Amino acid sequence: MRRGNGPGAVAGDSPFLPEALEANARGTLTEAQRNSCLARSRNLRWAEAGLGGLVIVLGLLFAATRHSSSVMPLRLAVLAGCLLIGAVLLWRALTGGDRLTADVRRGTVSSVDGAIYKRAVRLSSIQGASPKPPYYFDVAGQNFEVMWQSAFEAAPPAGYVRVFYLPRSRKAVNLERLPDPPVSQVTVETMQESAKDVLSALKSRNMARAAEAAAQLERQARYGQQFGSGPVTPPQDQPQARPLTEVIVGTWVGALMTVTFNADGSMTAGDSRARSHDGHWSVEADGRLRADALGQSTPTSAWVAGDELTIVMKGIPFTLHRSR
Prior knowledge:
This protein is an alpha+beta fold. Helix content is 35%, strand content 24%.
């Protein structure tokens, strides 16, 4: 077994290669993908070997240390247990008995189609020593671990994809973007409904439903470019009696953010992670809102209807409710 950073190692290379799609569609790994996965496998096996050695050393130290009379009878049992666990870990590391190594040896690839939802699971210090969280794709009700952060970041945040993965370890090795289904109608109301579906699915932890709703919302945003490219008037049943410069002043709260517009043109925007951004706002001659603290530099459509403020950001309308 060779360390992942030794000669010929390719650890850190992303296996998400467009040129490998043809081979993956036939159910096989390319040589580049195999080498990348082997490097990952070597790193895991070295870590497992180190853990096994540590368990054996701790068992020997426990057996050699003096203890109270009540603990002394347990020395042999603890030593035997540590030796057994350590031996199993060392054997797995040396022979490659883990699922990833078995997948690489077989070289077969499976695939699944569906809407994608990306998530990163943050590990506590108790759960794992690695500072990098494991990354996952949720597709068609199944989850697949992404071995490289660069591949996770390169994948689309929403939409329909085909994920190629190793069948035993369920590691994603490639991804192909699929054509979107046709969109029959795109309106502010349909996009708001899709955004509500995403939030509802996330709260219920239904990742498959969240992925479908996010894909629909992203598809509507791309096909509804008119929402971001020009003035958008509010729906006919939501008249805005006073100018936006007057009615927008105040604090507005939504599921993803809280925004405060001050009368002097300053503003503060906070997200769900308690991060705050200060900036300035103004209303253009055509009635569109310019608010730099929202993360976009161009003017966008916005309107107030009763106690609800709707802001169209990157083609997606977000509704906030007046707090005070």
